[in-house]
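Worked example 3. Consider a protein that binds zinc ion.
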Amino acid sequence: GDGDYEDESNEGTEVIPKLPKARMASLRTLYDPIIGNDSPARVADGSDDINDLGSWSRRNRLRRRRDPLDSALVLTFPGPNSFTGQDIVELHCHGSRGVVKGVLDALSSLDMRKITTTAAVPATAASGTKARRMRLRPADPGEFTQRAYANGKLGLVEVEALSDLIVADTSKQRKQALQQFDGRLSRLYQGWRSELVKGLAHAEAVIDFGDDETLSFDDDDEVDSGDDVIAVADDGGMTVWGTIRPRITALREAMDRHLADASRGELLRDGLRIAIVGRPNAGKSSLLNLLAGRDAAIVSSTPGTTRDVVEVILDLGGVRCTLLDTAGVREETDGGARVAARDAHIIVGVVDASDCVRGFDAVKELIDTATSEINEDDDDTLTVAKNVLYVMNKIDLVEDSGHLSRMPPSFGISCATSEGVESFLCSLTEKALSMVSNDDDDGSDPTRSAILSVEGTEGAVITRARHRRHVEAASEALARFEHLSDQGYMALDLAAEELRLAASELGRVTGAIDVENILDVLFADFCIGK
Ligand code: GDP
Ligand code: ZN
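Given these inputs, the predicted complex is written out as structure tokens:
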């Protein structure tokens, strides 16, 4: 429902006492025909303690109407412990037009004056003489999540995580989204922010104190023209900033380590691109089909529409990988292959083993060209070191495969007999996993100081370019702070301003600050009903 009632109940959530855990756990699961059933309402936990919300959907018009509509499941989630923080009733009815229309009609004919909810019902509604009808409309995409966000049930990072969770293809994507959803990235950034706020409070205190005597500078003596502030305070910032300075440095270093994660979180979220390149007839398509043919691995397959590229999405060890079969390396038209190779995170070079040397040279040249194109121009954050695997295909055709060992790290396979394919797939999966996981340096880094050890933030990882931009900006502000703080009292205000800037950049990630512009985009990504 929409309109007055909804708005009032929203405000009313404040006066609702928090429900005991056990009662919440029972979740008012009411299996009962909502219409045309005269038996009293049953509650899942067997008690007769039907919460008011649970009863209103049955006691009122819906139940009084003698016209049976459906046998349906009714779930009630009293605020403020519901997903949106509001009182929620879910009617799970059968999906036919007749049933849905009947239920919607019944709902819109409810007289809101007669409805008792745990939320405060406005006095005007209770005393009014005219029936107040519930206005119904479909939820906008992401509207429930948006309400949860508006009511402080979810932070911005958690909303993003939820949207990732909804579209997660693989187990690792799901796991990362769930970890994000539980708030560890938000906790980390909030911990960092509170550290910055401490620094700001310190600056305030110094400024207040300094007004009396310490800061009795004559501007003309201390300040050069323009922006160049001459460092006259000779204490190197120690007296002014005290222990704040080293803490901020440690914080910046923590941020920089956090940023130096090789984009693992973003790669896992977006998935890896694996390009298969090679001369015509080397067996690229055969290899792709073989890999895609593994029933368990395939997620979906889309025939390529552009540039002769066929895409298959595979789940390799929980990593979402898009496998691209490029058009063969031809002298004139290898553009598609080169672009695919350039944009790929992993390149698989396929060589016909019976055409070993020539085939290998052609592929290597293409890969080298593609790789050098990246090095020249690319500040794309997702650019990572190229991983190249060479595959010598059709080993069933060569009697003596001794010469294969003279080639760079490669796999001898046969798409015809499947020989070697399993072990190649293992290596490919390992490679993919190594690009998205950080297992080897998890928590074992002794340089992770106390500042980083915000409770419950293990594995907090950047999953979006948006996060990265803000954390980078925060780190840059702190670097400027370190520089300014060397100038002691002279640059106190400027240095404090950098702390404020860093804090607000972190605040933009978690949604504490300035988020209106990204909200619409974010919620529009959600499906209807979530
Ligand atoms: P592409 O042009 O690189 O995609 O090559 P294809 O996958 O279309 O294969 C070209 C030809 O080589 C086809 O006739 C395949 O049946 C054949 N072929 C592919 N892999 C093997 C293999 O391992 N052994 C043998 N004997 N033939 C193969
Ligand atoms: Zn092909």
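Take a moment to read the result before moving on. The radius of gyration is 31 Å. The chain has three domains: 4-137, 185-261+451-524, 270-437.
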